[in-house]
Amino acid sequence: MLKRGRLLNGGLFAVLIASFILTLVGFAAAHGDAPDGHEEEVGTMLDESIRQNTLLAVFAGSALLAILVAAAIFVKRKKRKASPLLLHLLFWPIIGIIVCVTAYVAGSTIYLNVVSETGGPVHWHADYEIWKCGEQHQLADPEGFSNRVGETVLHEHNDNRMHIEGVVVDYGDVSISSFFRSVGGELRNGWLALPTSHGLSTMKDGDSCGDGSGTLQVFVWKTADGRAVQEKLDSYVDYVPSPHGNVPPGDCIIFEFDSAVKEKTERMCESYEVALKLGKVTGDSNGG
């Protein structure tokens, strides 16, 4: 009996540890489970949906485990000679919950990687600057305990850098227009809305800008064979940043709302300027 009691205590302790681990997995799955303060503005993508379902499965499983473990401890204390059948009725559901939740978490992760266009998690970055009539505008800083603005996969850390981190199910989910949606703004042809610390800043083609009417233009600096080159984007709404972790060779994207329509911009992200000074890339401020 003493040996059986020790085995039971050991089994209950192992289950409690497993429950704790499942809870930790749930918190990991919950990291950034929704856009900060913009749940209604951003459509839930497949990866977010799976992450939320995983979170629910883990927390529900942990709650059931806690109930069953508490019941087993209660039975053991009240009935020193509890029947094997009663112990089995408590033990096997515990094992079943652990197996099912673990299988769901593993299976959903594998499925997400299989159906994604990137074939698994990525970690891409693109720097950006936004200029309105000669004045640089900044995205609003993160609030509360969060160190980011946006979604888990697509966000910003108060660093003028687009972060694409995670599984990309569809490339359209990480376009620059998707980035602005994720941070509570909007990008359309001839229109940009940016949430700033001073309110929403809007830029619409035809609006007053200096001595004339402004036009929204988007330019991108890329690295080709170690050389910084510049391109003006005509169809910028659906543009997807280059798949690089470092900048450069990752993109530097310049948004300009100005009365002068031009083919090139004289502006450049600090990351590219530093790389040029250090000789990490070649080129000049005119893109070629």
Give the gist of this structure.
By secondary structure, the protein is of the alpha+beta class. Helix content is 38%, strand content 24%. It has 2 domains: 2-115; 121-278, no CATH class.
Give the number of DSSP strands: 13
Query: Which geometry do the CA atoms define?
Result: elongated
Classification by helices and strands = alpha+beta
Number of domains: 2
Mean pLDDT: 79
The whole-angstrom Rg is: 26 Å
- Main β-sheet: number of strands, strand sense, barrel status? 8 strands, mixed
Q: What is the terminal-to-terminal distance?
A: 83 Å
Poorly predicted sequence stretches spanning 5 or more consecutive residues: 1-44
| Series of H and E elements | HHHEEEEEHEEEEEEEEH
Strand content: 15-25%
**Helix count, DSSP H or I runs of 4 or more residues:** 5
Percent helix, as a range, is 25-40%
